Amino acid sequence: MTETTTRLHEPAVLVLEDGTRFEGRAYGARGRTLGEAVFATGMTGYQETLTDPSYAGQIVMMTAPHIGNTGMNDEDMESARIWVAGFVVRDPARVVSNFRAQRSLDDDLAASGVVGISGIDTRALTRHLRSAGSMRSGIFSGDAFSLSPGEQLDLVLNASQMSGRNLSGEVSTAEPYTLPATGERVGTVAVLDLGVKTSTLGFLAERGFDVQVVPQSITADEVLALKPDALFFSNGPGDPAASDRHVEILRGALRAGLPYFGICFGNQLLGRALGFGTYKLPFGHRGINQPVVDKATGRVEITAHNHGFAVDAPIDRVSESSEGFGRVEVSHVDLNDDVVEGLNCLDIPAFSVQYHPESAAGPHDANYLFDRFAEMVRQHQRGGSSSEAYRDPAGDAASKENQA
């Protein structure tokens, strides 16, 4: 056997905290890694998934069987690095076949120190996680493969649970930075980086915002001292119940009258700021093919998701914020399981969605929400109401154009 052939056949094992084991072949870096085992249902966009900071602390399994054929490139990076704790695929591509590819997926995983496994029955693993729920896990290859099953399981059981973890400090920028508006200027938006993606910042700039990205360690007073025209909370990893300080920052901004838009983690933090609770989903929503209904229009959008937690709010009526922010409605609901996928404040200029309207890999059904945000800020500057801005007909027209 050549060295390359030997490398392709090095053994590896995925160990779940309930003792279930899947033996396969080493992929990417060799060694051991620990994290929460989750599955992502997108058939494309694996590079965007790998470089999404929201996946920090997770071992991600792709349900699509053939991964890696389009390689990796610098243009599609959603951040400066790969964030997943580990990567699981069934059939990795042996040949990169795309004119945009600059290197292979395997090479990028190895260079980034991301331990992976291939050649396992990913359908069986998906069905197991759907039944038992996401759980702690570990991938062991190289010297770590020689550990006894008991030693490997002990390492998994001693790893941290995702519930209760605050990971914002691990993924946020250390220093603030600014991106200038590229569209007709609306104003300045302060973006709290909880794991923000590159495409999000680009879409905000295109809508006319000077984008001031600030670290998650910023205080409420420091946010207000920037005198932004609006506030945006990004996506990010971890348990929203462990982010009390960010909730207080948001409450201070809302009381100061700042227009607000949040996505993913930012939706969960808005829910908490308004007085709702959050809870952990059994196996979460991850992938670029999730159906969501806009309750105001009845329109169904196919959206990109990556969340293991959700807001606990009534979907059948308008609620009153227990924190004094007025009336709140659930604006979007997941059609698979009725999970809250969006919040709209009727008495203050604030709304959020649980999914990813910036999805660079697609679909782009929800990209119009950035237009709604810009229009909400314009109306606020003119003294208009938040609910009018959220249901702005121009936003609906933009949505139809995107879907066309």
TrEMBL record:
Taxonomic superkingdom: Bacteria
Keyword Disulfide bond in annotation: no
Active-site residue list: 264, 356, 358
GO terms assigned for molecular function: ATP binding; carbamoyl-phosphate synthase (glutamine-hydrolyzing) activity
Binding site residues for L-glutamine: 54, 236, 238, 265, 268, 306, 308-309
Biological or metabolic pathway of the protein: Amino-acid biosynthesis; L-arginine biosynthesis; carbamoyl phosphate from bicarbonate: step 1/1; Pyrimidine metabolism; UMP biosynthesis via de novo pathway; (S)-dihydroorotate from bicarbonate: step 1/3
Subunit structure: Composed of two chains; the small (or glutamine) chain promotes the hydrolysis of glutamine to ammonia, which is used by the large (or ammonia) chain to synthesize carbamoyl phosphate. Tetramer of heterodimers (alpha,beta)4.
Entry keyword Magnesium: no
EC annotation from Swiss-Prot or TrEMBL: 6.3.5.5
Protein family (similarity comment): Belongs to the CarA family.
Enzyme superclass (EC): ligase
Name assigned to this protein: Carbamoyl phosphate synthase small chain
GO biological process: 'de novo' pyrimidine nucleobase biosynthetic process; 'de novo' UMP biosynthetic process; glutamine metabolic process; L-arginine biosynthetic process
Catalytic activity: hydrogencarbonate + L-glutamine + 2 ATP + H2O = carbamoyl phosphate + L-glutamate + 2 ADP + phosphate + 2 H(+); L-glutamine + H2O = L-glutamate + NH4(+)
Carbamoyl-phosphate synthase small subunit N-terminal domain residues: 10-140
The organism of origin for this protein: Agromyces terreus
Chain's role: Small subunit of the glutamine-dependent carbamoyl phosphate synthetase (CPSase). CPSase catalyzes the formation of carbamoyl phosphate from the ammonia moiety of glutamine, carbonate, and phosphate donated by ATP, constituting the first step of 2 biosynthetic pathways, one leading to arginine and/or urea and the other to pyrimidine nucleotides. The small subunit (glutamine amidotransferase) binds and cleaves glutamine to supply the large subunit with the substrate ammonia.
InterPro entries for this protein: Anth_synth/Amidotransfase, CarbamoylP_synth_ssu, CarbamoylP_synth_ssu_N, CarbP_synth_ssu_N_sf, Class_I_gatase-like, CPSase_GATase1, GATASE
Region (CPSase): 1-185
Keywords (A to Z) from UniProt: Amino-acid biosynthesis, Arginine biosynthesis, ATP-binding, Glutamine amidotransferase, Ligase, Nucleotide-binding, Pyrimidine biosynthesis
Taxon lineage: Bacteria, Bacillati, Actinomycetota, Actinomycetes, Micrococcales
